[in-house]
């Protein structure tokens, strides 16, 4: 038969870079490309015990569950959020299959073909991918290390009348940037004034290198000023394990109810077995201590990566030391193209994601994203040496 795929399914292109990166799944390539947490720190034993405890509760644990998700886990999430000044009742929380599904569900209930959404630039590639399936217009707002530029934000709201703004204000993917509080407040006020929904995506907020540093979430700031223009999504992918695929989204009851209905049509509910195991884990295991351990390790890995990059004497390259999260954003000399550097790097046996992937509109081609959380000391040393060699080779071919 002649398949009649929808327009997005027909026309959305497979990224050439993604195809290239598929080649990196071998041991010969050291990959700084994926957004992967460190496997050697996964709480595997505690998780195994948590699953065992679920099985001792009887066969009911294996039955269908609520679309909203396992209630005791939603209660636990509510308590954890309250410590960060986000106050939501269990029925204002929907458990999802990773925060990726949460992004898709917001898009499903809020966007129509032609709707405009604003994003930081660069921003999280797979969110862009999800939004594009709804035939929306994605408009980038000028962004820097402190967040969205307030003047450009105001101008874009005025010009495009967006329905939604999607942001990652704390340790962003791909840049690692953290929004200043004044920029956070500005976004909330602008969006509240113009009836624009803010989707705050916060998978990395808890992985901070200075434990006492406080980066207020947009959701908490909005709640403090009595505004309901923010929905907040986060995940246990980075703090426990990604394989559980447990994320959540919280917001007003009206929005959560709409997303619950949309989720019903998608998958009835996410794995309730996994949700019950996570509940058991959080009940018995010190997740905060675990997050402290991985954050300290990621900080060590990030520092090592920076030291190794410095040793490569990459003329014209610069970066800002991340204060949390999993990514280092590197700007190479102006005349280098990171996609060309990637091809050279793959020959050397190292991978990363070129910045072009993360831009809406014309990309800044000399940028790239390095993940520092996944690779241990020895491989990281070899990987950065290979990367340095590839960059030097590209420099000598363009000058
Ligand atoms: C910014 C951002 N949002 C959402 C996700 C999705 O995470 P998950 O679906 O594993 O919760 C990721 C994963 O890397 C991410 O970086």
- Uncertain segments are none
CATH class value of the largest domain: Alpha Beta
Task: Report the CATH topology name of the largest domain.
Answer: Aspartate Aminotransferase, domain 2
Written as H for each helix and E for each strand, in order along the chain, the element string is HHEHHEHEHEEEHEHEHEEHHHEHEEEH
Bound molecules: pyridoxal-5'-phosphate
Total number of β-strand segments? 14
- The helix-and-strand class reads alpha/beta
Average of per-residue pLDDT values: 96
- Rg over CA atoms: 21 Å
Beta content comes to: 5-15%
| Count of runs of 4 or more consecutive helical residues | 14
CATH superfamily of the largest domain: Type I PLP-dependent aspartate aminotransferase-like (Major domain)
Distance between the termini: 53 Å
CATH architecture of the largest domain: 3-Layer(aba) Sandwich
The neighbouring-strand order within the major sheet is 2-10-9-8-7-3-4
């Amino acid at each position: 038969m002649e398949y009649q795929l929808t327009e997005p399914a027909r026309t959305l292109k497979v990224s050439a870079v993604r195809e290239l990166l598929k080649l990196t799944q071998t041991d010969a390539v050291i990959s700084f490309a994926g957004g992967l947490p460190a496997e050697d720190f996964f709480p595997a034993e505690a998780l195994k015990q948590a699953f065992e405890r679920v099985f001792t509760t009887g066969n009911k644990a294996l039955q269908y569950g609520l679309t909203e998700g396992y209630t005791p886990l939603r209660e636990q999430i509510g308590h954890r959020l309250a410590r960060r000044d986000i106050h939501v009742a269990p029925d204002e929380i929907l458990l999802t299959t990773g925060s990726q599904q949460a992004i898709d569900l917001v898009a499903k209930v809020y966007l129509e073909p032609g709707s405009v959404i604003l994003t930081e630039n660069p921003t999280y590639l797979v969110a862009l991918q999800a939004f594009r399936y709804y035939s929306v217009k994605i408009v980038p707002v000028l962004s820097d290390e402190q967040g969205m530029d307030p003047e450009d934000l105001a101008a874009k709201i005025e010009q495009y009348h967006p329905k939604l703004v999607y942001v990652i204000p704390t340790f962003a993917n791909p840049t690692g940037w953290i929004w200043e509080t004044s920029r956070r407040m500005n976004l909330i006020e602008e969006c509240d004034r113009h009836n624009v929904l803010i989707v705050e995506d916060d998978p990395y907020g808890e992985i901070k290198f200075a434990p006492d540093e406080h980066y207020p979430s947009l959701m908490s700031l909005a709640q403090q000023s009595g505004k309901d223009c923010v929905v907040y999504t986060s995940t246990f992918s980075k703090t426990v394990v990604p394989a559980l695929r447990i994320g959540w989204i919280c917001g007003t009851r009206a929005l959560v109810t709409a997303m619950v209905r949309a989720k019903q049509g998608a998958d009835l509910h996410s794995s309730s077995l996994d949700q019950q195991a996570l509940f058991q884990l959080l009940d018995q295991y010190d997740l905060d201590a675990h997050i402290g351990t991985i954050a300290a390790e990621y900080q060590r890995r990030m520092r090592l990566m920076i030291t190794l990059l410095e040793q490569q004497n990459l003329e014209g390259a610069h970066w800002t030391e991340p204060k949390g999260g999993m990514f280092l954003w590197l700007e190479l000399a102006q005349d280098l193209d990171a996609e060309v550097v990637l091809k050279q790097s793959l020959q050397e046996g190292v991978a990363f994601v070129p910045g072009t992937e993360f831009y809406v509109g014309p990309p800044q081609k000399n940028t790239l994203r390095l993940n520092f959380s996944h690779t241990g000391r020895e491989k990281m040393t070899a990987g950065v040496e290979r990367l340095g060699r590839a960059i030097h080779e590209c420099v000598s071919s363009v000058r």
